[in-house]
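Try this one yourself first.
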């Protein structure tokens, strides 16, 4: 008999990541990968450690998965940035701009789209200014 349960469509899942202050090493962050901004639990275990990291401010999530504040300490001050990989962008820019004088700018036009794609597809990181926790890909709502 065939199962009537729908399988998970992996193309619509957006992977998120949480980096919270490490419980025993001050100044370092412990990292957890999540299935998305809605897959946050109230506690996480750190490998090789005895205790758990508690998340007491799950109410800081909005209905669309974005954050109103830090899930770890509850502070409202979050700064946003993108984790851009600069190596491929700089390499493409050099390869496109170096021969642009002789190709009348066509090589610069050819590398413009790949540079834009690399720039725009970089993961967005929200960092708490109070405790230093980082939340990757929580700043956009759910993707279709």
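Now uncover the answer:
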């Amino acid at each position: 008999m065939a199962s009537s349960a729908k399988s998970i469509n992996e193309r619509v899942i957006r992977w998120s990541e949480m980096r919270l202050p490490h419980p025993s090493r001050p100044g370092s962050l412990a990292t957890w990968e999540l299935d998305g901004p809605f897959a946050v639990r109230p506690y996480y275990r750190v490998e090789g450690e005895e205790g758990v990291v508690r998340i007491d401010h799950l109410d800081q999530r909005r209905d669309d998965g974005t954050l109103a504040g830090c899930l770890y300490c509850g502070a409202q001050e979050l700064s946003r940035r993108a984790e851009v990989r600069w190596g491929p962008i700089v390499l493409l820019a050099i390869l496109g701009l170096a021969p642009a004088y002789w190709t009348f700018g066509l090589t610069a036009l050819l590398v413009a789209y790949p540079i834009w794609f690399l720039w725009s597809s970089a993961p967005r990181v929200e960092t708490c200014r109070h405790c230093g926790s980082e939340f990757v890909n929580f700043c956009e709502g759910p993707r279709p």
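Discussion: The helical segments are 86-97, 106-120. The chain has a mean pLDDT of 83.
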